[in-house]
Amino acid sequence: MIKSKKAQIFTIISIFLLVLMFASFEIISILKDRRTINDRVSSMENFLSSIEKNLGRQMYIAGYRIIFLAEAEVYSSPGYINASDFFNEAFFNGTVNGIENQSFLIGVVYDDILSSINNKAAKINVDISLANSFINVTQSDPWSVNFSMTSDFKMSDRSGLAYWNKKQMISAMIPITEFEDPVFVKGAFTRIPRKIIRTPFEGTYFDVVSFSNISAQLSEGYYSNNSDAPNFLKRLEGDFSPDPNGIESFVDVAKLVQQGISPEDKSVIDHIYFSGNNPVATQVDSSLPNWFKLDDEHKKRYQIP
Questions:
Q1: φ, ψ (nearest 5 deg) of residue 228
Q2: pLDDT, position 28
Q3: Residue 31 predicted with pLDDT over 50
Q4: 241 plus 166 within the same structural domain
Q5: Which of 24, 31, 157, 260 has its CA 20 to 30 A from that of 278?
Q6: Same domain flag for 193 and 253
Q7: Would you state the pLDDT for residue 264?
Q8: Cα gap 59→53, rounded to integer Å
Q9: What does the pLDDT read at residue 3?
């Protein structure tokens, strides 16, 4: 009887140990699987971060090149452009006015960017898709264009371990400095190019003894922010309406005359001089050219008494 009980106890202990052993193997297997999943998720998150950084760089390159082409279009065509339509066509179709083979856009348009992403994703057994993509071209400051793309972003591991699904926005800020001013391209009949250079004189245009900074602002063609002026994107469209991120410069009338362009007797603020606006303007000072005239609002803007 005692031996029988001992045998039963031994059997129970053996069964318990076997169950414990199998349970331990199962727990270890689960932990290994979980560690594998966690490692995969971590590596995919790092890949996603890398992809988004690279997308930002690609958007910058695409935006910069499209602005360059937009300026070339303004230069060569009789009119201005619609900035939004131009960007959309160039970015999604790789064309300008329906014309393909735009070598300047090779590798930077939407399909090229998507192909580049998927080539990289395939190397780590990941699939990526961008759907319902659209772009915005805006300005939130006077000296940069914000070029952004919003998409339904999906990324999945080919073995089914992990999956991302989110609304993604990638943007790039593209400086406008050193681009040509479209208003001068048209206003001066392409004869006098004017690059956008930010003024170093903000807040110090005039002091009580000298117009030297005003004179330098004129001769160097510097630009200042003014909310009654059009921003860069509006300038591409020939829209002279005011904008909080507007920029303006002085027109050097003498240079126009040198190029055979008849002078206008009006304020030398560019978006006034090259438009139909004509507020009353008077000569500023005898130390400046007699054609250098400003309207009252701009005399205040440039601290002229």
A1: -95, 5
A2: 45
A3: no
A4: no
A5: 260
A6: yes
A7: 97
A8: 10
A9: 53
Query: CA dist 20 to 26, 34, 160, Å?
Result: 10, 20, 31
Work out how many domains the chain is built from and give that number.
2
Could you give the CA distance from residue 94 to residue 139 in angstroms, rounded to a whole number? 23
Helices within the chain (DSSP H only): 2-76, 83-88, 110-122, 182-187, 212-220, 232-237, 253-258, 270-273, 296-301
Determine if residue 300 is left, alpha or beta; phi over 0 gives left, psi from -120 to 50 gives alpha, anything else beta.
alpha
Host domain of residue 159: 2-175
Tokens, residue 140: 């939130």
**Percent of the chain at pLDDT exceeding 70:** 88
> Does residue 5 carry a pLDDT above 80?
no
Q: Does the reported pTM lie above 0.90?
A: no
Cα 228 to its chain centre, rounded Å, is: 23
From the number of C-beta atoms within 10 Å of its C-beta (0-12, 13-18, 19+), residue 292 rates as: buried
> Is the confidence at residue 33, as pLDDT, over 70?
no
